[in-house]
Amino acid sequence: MDFKLSEEHIMIRDAAREFAQTELLPGVVERDNKQEFPDTLVKKMGELGFMGVMVDPKYGGSGMDTISYVLIMEELSKIDASASVMVSVNNSLVCYGLETYGTEAQKEKYLTPLAAGEKLGAFCLSEPEAGSDATSQRTTAIDKGDHYVLNGTKNWITNGGRADIYLVIAQTDKDKGSHGINAFIVEKGMKGFDIGPKEDKLGIRGSDTHTLQFNDVKVPKENRIGANGSGFRFAMKTLSGGRIGIAAQALGIAQGAYELALKYSKERKAFGTEISNHQAIAFKLADMYTEIEAARLLVMKAATDKDAGANYDRSSAMAKLYASEVAMKHTVEAVQIHGGNGFVKEYHVERLMRDAKITQIYEGTSEIQKIVISRSILRD
């Protein structure tokens, strides 16, 4: 085992850190208040190779490994989780899904601009009646020979309003259950495809979250991903990789909160000394540091499994479960260490606390991760 980062990984981490500090940090509070994320910053992330981190360079990607992706996600998430979730969805769900399961024609047409950051992607699985139970798809795609007709509703879609390319999971044959589900590539602007109002969220307020409506949308047959009936497997395997991205996001949120709390504890004085000298605060910092480091090891283990070509379903679920719990627990502690100042926006920790909550919910709730883990260990 080698727990040290390579020189290349350190360079990638430092580049992401510099971007986060110089480009994301200024205006992050304002973006959260206004619930917006500038296209200019998305473009810059694309230019740096953050939107197609693991994609083969022949398709416009950076050709880096999953460890690199985790490092980038952590650094962006320390500062702005709204930015990092855009990166996560585009990389883990959309680019990965197309590169792994798409045809050569689909890769050339759709993957290349997505990986280069020229276009933005969205992954559409959740529905009003199908969140954790992904097999209960109400969105239908009826086979009409040379095309499918898509009808239904998708909600909680990250990048929902600003994406150009949408991967949509829909039921083609209800009688076949999960084997009757397919995945389709839908382009913005297709007739009958409507985007609902932006959601007013607790956290990651700068990210773009919408409900999508599909009303008799004609999707060409060549836009189906994979073999007929393979959509559910496509979605589940794609989400396994996506959990590594969200675990890294949770890790970054926790690390960012810890760093702010540590700094504040060395500056703030009470009872004649810096509050870091009080055991009550020092022990909080010790717990934060230890549990964040444990989360980091789980995240890196999942990334290493993926890079090694091993099955990472269990390790990614473990990483997301634990890192998200740590993020929620210790952003609350960071607010507590800041006292009254932690409750106001200028000190950033209240935003990190709000952003942490979603990591326990999207791309599989903590309860779903426990199902994945328990089934895996009981099969052994």
Give keywords:
380 residues; alpha+beta; four-stranded antiparallel beta sheet; 52% helix
Structural summary, described in words:
With 380 residues, the protein is an alpha+beta fold. The protein is built from eleven helices and ten strands. It has helices spanning 7-24, 28-34, 39-47, 66-79, 81-101, 104-115, 231-267, 279-307, 313-338, 349-358, 366-379, and strands at residues 121-124, 140-143, 147-158, 165-171, 181-187, 193-198, 209-220, 224-225, 269-270, 273-274. Helix 5 runs antiparallel to helix 6 and helix 7 packs antiparallel against helix 10. The longest helix is centred in the middle third of the chain and has 37 residues, at 231-267. The protein starts with 6 loop residues before the first helix and ends with a helix.
Span between N and C termini? 24 Å
SSE class? alpha+beta
Count of individual helical segments: 11
* SSE topology string: HHHHHHEEEEEEEEHEEHHHH
Morphology: globular
Q: For the report, how would you describe the main beta sheet?
A: 4 strands, mixed
Q: How many beta-strand runs?
A: 10
Describe the structure in brief.
This protein is α+β, with helices and mostly antiparallel strands and 380 residues long.
Question: What is the strand and helix layout of this fold?
Answer:
Elements: H1 7-24, H2 28-34, H3 39-47, H4 66-79, H5 81-101, H6 104-115, E1 121-124, E2 140-143, E3 147-158, E4 165-171, E5 181-187, E6 193-198, E7 209-220, E8 224-225, H7 231-267, E9 269-270, E10 273-274, H8 279-307, H9 313-338, H10 349-358, H11 366-379
Parallel strand pairs: 1-4
Antiparallel strand pairs: 2-3, 3-7, 4-5, 5-8, 6-7, 9-10
